[in-house]
């Protein structure tokens, strides 16, 4: 069974699209931390379509943290997919060893990848044909506007390579109060570099649309699309591929963006701190059920 089949089966069996993020803030990879993570898994498993451990929180604890990760992964029921959030973005032999670490050593079902070094970032991971890949497309952070949401004018192709240029974008809110000595003028508002007009034969695409085209390499490939930046016009440009959707819960993403979704590819909505670190008196399981139901309501609206 490949990743997509496993995920589809789990969503159907659980009636859930909730991905439980294991972003555990800990000072040591001790027995207490391990027991807490296993408790989270045991309480949330009935409501989870998948789990998403974030590599950073385990790597920060040294080799003991990675050992603990390998141990807690064994506590996840075999029918629940694991998406390893590593955002690897290298090429060649180095990327091949990253793939080996994820799939051969940890045995996870899918990973997140940073595709901005190009298509060859995917190639070592594509050798594992039954494993899932989620490419960063429109992430949930404010900085998504700096690259992912930028528009590019494609002029022509030379030997398969697209030659283009960026369309100047309005400054981010944080830059809106910057000094006005030429900064705003250099960005321009006329749809062309330095105020020039756009030639009629140029076609505009946003960077995330180029990333989305990379998913054609495999049926197991999907995209990361953050709820905080998943406006209707963005979602309309996203192909019907598996989506991993962060930004709900502590990041303040709005479930309204998902209302009435008619996508057929499996969809995961991730909640991390809203389950593992919420400041309320609910159990981990109760929080997971609450988010599972909210997600289901949004998708069925």
List the keywords.
globular; TIM Barrel; 33% helix; 2 domains; 301 residues
Overview of the molecule:
The protein has helices at 3-14, 31-44, 55-59, 62-73, 92-105, 123-126, 183-187, 207-213, 232-236, 273-276, 284-300; strands spanning 18-22, 50-53, 83-88, 110-113, 132-138, 151-158, 161-167, 203-206, 221-225, 243-245, 267-271. With 301 residues, the protein is an alpha/beta fold. α2 links the parallel β1 and β2. The two termini are 31 Å apart. The model is unreliable at 174-196 (pLDDT under 50).
What does this entry show, briefly?
The protein has 301 residues and is an alpha/beta fold. The protein has eleven helices and eleven strands. It has helices spanning 3-14, 31-44, 55-59, 62-73, 92-105, 123-126, 183-187, 207-213, 232-236, 273-276, 284-300; strands at 18-22, 50-53, 83-88, 110-113, 132-138, 151-158, 161-167, 203-206, 221-225, 243-245, 267-271.
CATH architecture of the largest domain: Alpha-Beta Barrel
Task: Tell me, briefly, the overall form.
Answer: globular
In helices, the fraction of residues equals 25-40%
Strand content range: 15-25%
What is the number of helical segments per DSSP (H or I, 4+ residues)? 11
Task: Please outline the major beta sheet.
Answer: 8 strands, parallel
Radius of gyration: 21 Å
Strand order of the largest sheet: 2-1-11-10-9-5-4-3
One letter per element, helices H and strands E, the order comes to HEHEHHEHEHEEEHEHEHEEHH
**Total number of distinct structural domains:** 2
The fold-level CATH name of the largest domain is TIM Barrel
